[in-house]
Amino acid sequence: MAGRVTSPPLILELITKASEYLTGKGIDTPRLDAELLLGHVLGMERIELYVRFDQPLEPTEVDAYRVAIARRAQRIPVAYITGSKEFYSLAFQVDSSVLIPRPETELLVECVLTRFDEGKASLEPKIVELGTGSGAIAVALAHTWRQNGSLVPRIYATDIAEQALQVAKANLESHDVQDVIQLCQGDLYGALPSSLASCVDAIVSNPPYIPSNQVKQLAPEIVRYEPLGALDGGADGLSFYRRIYSEGRKFLRPGGFVAVEIGHGQGSQVMAIAEAQGYTKMGLHRDYGDRERVVTATWE
Fold this sequence. Notes:
Blueprint: H1 11-24, H2 30-42, H3 46-51, H4 59-73, H5 78-82, E1 84-87, E2 90-93, H6 106-118, E3 126-130, H7 136-147, E4 154-159, H8 162-174, E5 181-185, E6 200-205, H9 212-215, H10 220-225, H11 239-248, E7 252-261, H12 267-276, E8 279-286, E9 292-299
Parallel strand pairs: 3-4, 3-6, 4-5, 6-7
Antiparallel strand pairs: 1-2, 7-9, 8-9
Helix pairs in contact: 1-2, 1-4, 2-4, 6-7
């Protein structure tokens, strides 16, 4: 008697089963993650999955998908499994040496772009980004200006971690902005050439701002896999802001500004730190979730 022939699984069937499995593992977005991972395995956008729900898969594709789902069940972030994350409509290479770019950080990019549109930069504008990680902020700025036909400032992007700068280098090259962004290894301003003193138009940063005693309370995906040093902002979460504003005075030109991302509820504290260091024209910007997200301040 002939053995029973098993039909190959269909896209919809796999997504449904994977979603149920991830739900049981406590994943917050099981359906989304199941679709993103299958799209990655098949080399498809999510929208393509919707129009091919009845497409059968090859055994090798099913095996690769099972591996990806098993990794997600271990709480490995989707971006680390796929090796890529979208930010400001651009794809960025990521791995566990860098924080995964978050959509809320796009407001920081918007604030910098708007400030340059409204004000007058120097004839050869210069920007410093502190703690560049994957390079997402610096690349998004340079790419946007170039796409708009605007003058692209020279951007100096610093990070203390050599592995992070290797990821950033790959992202600079993939978006063809390596000619306007210089990567510098070191601790905040210690990575910068002394020639930048008093001639920087903008200092931009998404620094660590989680209080030390709260870092281990973050989601398992963050605590187990993301670089915690890029999150720990000291006892009160404000250590890096004190350094950014204090040491930044040496590098900013008159009329230059600082734009930083902040944690929830830190707006008044960060602005107080800036004001105590002599900065003026403070601005507090809220994200689409109506949370305090970015502080801007001018050095006169």
